[in-house]
Specification:
Its cofactor is biotin. The protein is of the alpha+beta class. Helices cover about 25% and strands about 35% of the residues. The chain folds into 5 domains: about 100 residues, Rossmann fold (3-Layer(aba) Sandwich); about 70 residues, ATP-grasp fold, A domain (Dna Ligase, domain 1, 2-Layer Sandwich), CATH 3.30.1490; about 240 residues, D-amino Acid Aminotransferase, Chain A, domain 1 (2-Layer Sandwich); about 110 residues, no CATH class; about 70 residues, Beta Barrel (OB fold (Dihydrolipoamide Acetyltransferase, E2P)), CATH 2.40.50.
């Protein structure tokens, strides 16, 4: 293999390029028009345009194979997403005389539909969740199956993934609406509306096992990962190894995963996903586990496995694809330390996790983190592709050390130009229950209030950080934080900070190399210095505190132990007279899938008014006020722009 074509974009394309070049393999990057200036295009040996900017060019199998031939590529790596789990594409690559860096098309096909996959696993002796995986998809048959399984249950699109086409149903009355929504998402995302039903495990953990197989009969696992921190069934934080499991359970999961791969004559990298039922514990204290699905590709979260095993999984993929045996036997694969990965997304985490679009104005990460990203300063994030900014990975000798490194790294990360979930991830990674290992897949929903920005009064230590950083008198002599003061000269500066409508007025006086703060009850005199890692350290009578400070002309943000506070440097604007609090605006571009109200109808706060489809996901739009619909500017099927006034409530 001398030249490799990468049938993907962004972060995973860069990841593959890095390893391929280290192995002496030339690379060909593909790109849609708007991706022409992306980092993966510059970093590849050569690049070829796919045409207009949308997801479709990366799904054009015929064009991709033709480019591979034109560029004299011997192999195609599909990355993840797009065509990575498309059995027809894998078969077409092989038929063209090229190497597909992934499993055989038959193995992909065997795992492609969740119902068929569960049947195969059941025959192989791998535990599966009780449920219905039948071919009869009529409403009456599905309703009868649901009654037989009992509620709560889970509806899943058989071709689903990433949380699309998945609905939890707690009672019979909500079954039909949930079924129709799952079928619509399945059809929109996978061109397949078929679903399966299964018992809903009330307190599940999501644990997956990385497997690898070669063409010489060798099949191994590279230990497990925990992916239980999820939002809408989409992974947010992943870690390896899974915390709190007995060695017995780890062994059983590894054996089950290898059995699953062997049963379908697997090749290359794959991940077998299991659900652990924390409410069903055996005599050894181990929870029951069930096969969920197998991802027949490299996973987004593969870096945490690389971190604990020291294995380059992309290198293994390329070696296996060109016919080499696995580099290590099972007993040679050791796990050392702990690693955790957080997915940094362009989304409004404090406003319902709606996607955020815009141009990245600044993007900085601390050196303590491994960062896998496909964008850079100046990149634009739209709605055509997944809005991931980066994967940030922290490693430590222990889980506690890895989580602390991740939290500090997120505190130090800077993303401007659009909204991101950075602060949410920091709060999540530092939540006491998560740090203690007390979590399941419902953790984010259970702790939703605690994971929102604090509504408590701003701590005085935070105000002290802000005042000390902003209030140092700008006269001769250098300070540790980029401003200056003259030693022993009691010059005074007045700092005014707003937390919402609350004004905090603090006087700062420099005396003998320290700062005296007036206006705070518990902190009087402090010293502030900049540390080599970019943090500021505050020394006061209450002890030492370290925080990251992000200062703009409009505000100062103080990030302390996973929490963050933004204090305005100017008074907030007054409310505009006559402004309408009952307007509902589109949170993103999309299509109105359904409209649940009519002009003149009375509505309550929180009542569902419409469903907006964006990025192949359904988003419920709820009433922001009590009143009557006085203006209705949309109909079902309409395309709407971001920020458009959809309706008004009087």
């Amino acid at each position: 293999m001398k030249k490799l074509l990468i049938a993907n974009r962004g972060e995973i394309a860069r990841r593959i390029i890095r390893t391929a070049h280290a192995m002496g393999i030339e690379t060909v990057a593909l790109h849609a028009d708007a991706d022409a200036a992306s980092p993966h295009v510059r970093e590849a040996t050569e690049a070829v345009s796919l045409g207009p900017d949308s997801a479709r060019p990366y799904l054009n199998a015929e064009r991709i194979i033709a480019i591979a031939r034109q560029t004299d590529s011997q192999a195609i790596h599909p990355g993840y997403g797009f065509l990575s789990e498309n059995a027809d594409f894998a078969a077409a690559v092989a038929a063209a005389g090229l190497i597909f860096v992934g499993p055989p098309s038959a193995a992909i096909r065997a795992m492609a539909l969740k119902d068929a996959a569960k049947s195969l696993m059941k025959k192989a002796g791998v535990p599966v969740t009780p449920g219905y995986q039948g071919m009869d998809q009529s409403l009456i048959r599905l309703q009868r199956a649901a009654e037989a399984i009992g509620f709560p249950l889970l509806i899943k699109a058989v071709a689903g993934g990433g949380g699309k086409g998945m609905r939890a149903v707690t009672e019979a009355a909500g079954f039909q609406d949930a079924l129709m929504a799952a079928q619509r998402e399945g059809e929109a995302s996978f061109s397949n509306a078929a679903v399966l039903l299964e018992k809903l495990v009330r307190r599940p953990r999501h644990v997956e096992v990385q497997v690898f197989a070669d063409s010489h009969g060798n099949v191994v696992h590279l230990h497990e990962r925990d992916c239980s921190l999820q939002r809408r069934h989409q992974k947010v934080i992943e870690e390896a190894p899974a915390p709190g499991l007995s060695e017995r359970l780890r062994h059983m999961l590894g054996v089950a995963a290898v059995t699953a791969a062997t049963a379908i004559d697997y090749r290359n990298a794959g991940t077998v996903e299991f659900l652990l039922d924390l409410d069903d514990v055996d005599s050894h204290g181990d929870p029951a586990f069930y096969f969920m699905e197998m991802n027949t590709r490299l996973q987004v979260e593969h870096p945490v496995t690389e971190a604990i095993t020291g294995v380059d999984l992309v290198e293994w993929q390329l070696r296996v694809a060109r016919g080499e045996p696995l580099p290590l036997a099972q007993d040679e694969i050791q796990a050392t330390g702990h690693a955790v990965e957080a997915r940094l997304y362009a989304e409004d985490a404090d406003g319902g996790f709606l996607p955020s679009t815009g141009t990245i104005e600044a993007l900085r990460f601390p050196p303590a983190l491994r960062v896998d990203t496909g964008i850079e300063q100046g990149s634009r994030i739209g709605l055509d592709y997944d809005p991931m900014i980066a994967k940030v990975i922290a490693q430590g000798a222990t889980r506690e050390e890895a989580l602390a490194t991740l939290t500090a790294g997120l505190d130090a990360t800077v993303v401007t130009g659009l909204k991101s979930n950075r602060a949410f991830l920091a709060r999540l990674a530092s939540h006491p229950a998560f740090v203690a290992g007390d979590f399941d897949t419902g953790f984010i929903a259970t702790h939703a209030t605690a994971l929102l920005p604090s509504t408590e009064p701003v701590p005085e230590v935070v105000l002290a950080f802000a005042a000390a950083a902003l209030g140092t008198p700008p006269v001769a002599g250098a300070s540790a934080f980029g401003q200056a003061f003259r030693l022993n000269l009691p010059l005074e500066t007045h700092v005014r900070l707003w937390a919402g409508d609350a004004l905090h007025a603090i006087s700062v006086r420099a005396v003998a190399g320290r700062l005296r703060l007036a206006g705070l009850e518990t902190i009087g005199e402090v010293a502030l210095r900049l540390l080599p890692d970019g943090r500021h350290r505050l020394q006061s009578g209450r002890g030492y505190f370290s925080a990251y400070l992000h200062i703009t002309p409009q505000a100062i943000e103080v990030r302390l132990d996973g929490q963050s506070w933004t204090l305005a440097r100017q008074a907030p604007p007054k409310a505009v007279a006559g402004a309408r609090s009952g307007q509902l605006r589109a949170p993103m571009p999309g299509r109105v899938l359904s409209l649940d109200i009519a002009l003149g109808e009375s509505v309550e706060v929180g009542q569902r008014l419409a469903i907006l489809e964006a990025m192949k996901m359904e988003h419920r739009l709820l009433s922001p006020a009590v009143g009557i619909i006085t203006a209705l500017n949309i109909s079902a099927g309409d395309q709407v722009a971001d920020g458009m006034v959809l309706l008004e409530i009087g």
